[in-house]
Amino acid sequence: MSAASVTLVAAATAPHPVNGIALTVVIVIFVAVAILGFVAARWRITPEERGLKSLDQWGLGGRGFGSWITWFLLGGDLYTAYTFIAVPAAMWSTGALSGFFAVPYTVVLYPIVFLLMGRLWSVSHRHGYVTPADFVGGRYGSKALSTAIAVTGIVATMPYIALQLVGIKSVLTVLGVGGGTNALTQDLPLIIAFVVLAAYTYTAGLRAPAVIAVVKDLLIYIAIIVAIIWLPAQFGGWGQIFDAASAKMAATNPATGKPVGSVIPDAGSFNAYWTLALGSAMALFMYPHSITGVLATKSRNTIRRNAVVLPIYSLMLGFLALLGYVAIKAGTKPIGLDGKINPQLVVPQLFLDNFPSWFAGVALAAIAVGALVPAAIMSIAASNLFTRNIYRDLFRPNATPTQEAKVSKLVSLVVKLGALLFVIVMDQSAAINMQLLGGVWILQTFPAIVAGLYTRWFHRWALLIGWATGIVYGTAAAYGVVNPVTHAHFGGSIAPIPFTNIPIYIAITAFVINALVSVVFTLIFRALNVPDRRDSTTPSDYGADEHDPKVVATSETVNELPV
User: Fold this and answer.
1) Those residues with Cβ within 8 angstroms of residue 22's Cβ, 6 or more apart along the chain or in another chain
2) Domain residues of the chain, as ranges?
3) Contact 69, 44 (CB under 8 A)
């Protein structure tokens, strides 16, 4: 039986009525994209490189992506399916504080990319670094610190991958697929999508999401441009849309006794808003999947050119966020499989309710494909971290490039399987909470990575102590945030600064504590003359470009890093 037939059978018992036309469009586009993923295994491959027998070829696409491919790849990497689901869902639920912060944070993001990522690309090009932990290990000469960076990246990425599958599940739900009481029929379509994703990622590596990202981004742009023009015209214009949103946000939430939210951030939420935007911008390019997209480019100027033009996506994101308010005016009812309101279904349901079935299918396919691209890149990035900075550094220091590629391919399957089990076995809110916590954790790698791009002043042990302090504080503070409705811990990412009543993004507080501890302990270790390790990089490495010669790795600089 074909995947399409199985999907249609599974839909028979779904509580949502099956929209056959939209479902058919989604299946056709999904199959076409899957074929592209497998074909990508031969894209820009010489006969000698077939089989992708090194991490440079499998995990970084041969380090040869130009400006156009990089633009689509980074756009597909950073603007995930969960972005398209969660941002308007937050706007629909509680307004601007929890949703619209994503727009200024992506505006702040690209100057950071312009300043930092060119230097990281250069030093990685010179030394053959595949992961940010490779760079940290080479810069500070410490396996302990590089292992901490690698573990943080892997753990923070896992729930992020799971949320991409949540995005696919949202699309399947509104299409009427995956319902019923039988566990197999509920999750079979998601399992099929996982198997396809795992297969083409294993076969083609980073080339697969790079090719698919072009299709995904074009579909997303078409869907949002049409929606932002057509829908306001159907519901009386933006004035009436904002009036409806204001009325909903001004209503009292019975669980808290406070207003549901606000259309724009009020004075009491300014600090939370700007720190959430700033912290998110600082954290995004610390995620290993973002850095993987950067290191796959062919030159440092490719990154800088993209940092200039990628803000176009921020305009699209602003329009997308406003669809949450459009859904309020449209009276969209996002009902989940359990019969309860599920805000994550707002955008898929909005398209299905207000567009012809064929176009709704295109929009929903864009969201589903939008999950495949980042999920593939994230699994590749996590597996590269494991292979280079745990398997090789700690267990097989003499591993060959072919052995590294084999291990990374297998680990990518394990990572995706773990994410799938996370979505199937655990409550969806657990994945959301873990992703919020992942943002707190990944920001704690910022001092070691970013400071290392400019200075060698920090002591390796001070950075490790600062990292541990930030992780412990951030985790404890996030645990202390209780959801007012479900009373569950890890209920949000905003908490007061210690000893004050000023609420800000927890990751920022943890980062400041991390940085202060790193500075203080560096001064202490310097005063005590605690010896430091050799820096494998030189000042000229940080300005190298594509035609500059690479440093030949030696066992002293790579395979035998001291603790």
Assistant:
1) 175, 352, 357, 358, 360, 361, 364
2) 53-427
3) no
Residue with tokens 């959430």: 276
Residue type for position 255: A
Q: Are 311 and 71 in contact (CB under 8 A)?
A: no
Mapping DSSP to helix (H, G, I), strand (E, B) and coil, where does residue 259 land? strand
400/392 Cα distance (integer angstroms): 9
How many C-beta atoms lie closer than 10 Å to residue 399's C-beta? 18
Q: Find tokens 């954790």 and name the residue.
A: 441
pLDDT of residue 4: 40
Cα distance between residue 388 and residue 384, in whole Å: 6
- Please give the structure tokens belonging to residue 221: 């742009």
DSSP secondary structure string for all residues of 496-553: EPTTS--EEEHHHHHHHHHHHHHHHHHHHHHHTT---PPP---GGGGG--TTSPPPPP
Do the Cβ atoms of 377 and 406 come closer than 8 Å? no
Q: Which amino acid is at 383?
A: S
3-state secondary structure 247-310: HHHHCEECCCCEECCECCCCHHHHHHHHHHHHHHHHHHCCCHHHHHHHHCECCHHHHHHHHHHC
The count of other CB atoms within 10 Å of the CB of residue 200 is 26
**CA 560 to the chain's CA centroid:** 32
Identify whether the C-beta of residue 535 lies closer than 8 Å to the C-beta of residue 140.
yes
Predicted confidence (pLDDT) per residue in 205-255, tens digit: 899 999 898 888 899 889 999 999 999 999 999 999 999 999 999 888 877
- Of 173, 212, 204, 207, the closest CA to residue 190 belongs to 173
Total number of residues shown for the chain: 563
Pairwise CA distance, residues 460 & 56, whole Å = 28
From its phi and psi, is residue 104 left (phi > 0), alpha (psi between -120 and 50) or beta? alpha
Q: Is the pTM higher than 0.85? A: yes
Encoding tokens for residue 71? Answer: 């633009």
Topology (CATH level 3) of domain 53-427: Sodium/glucose cotransporter (1.20.1730)
- DSSP code of 563? -
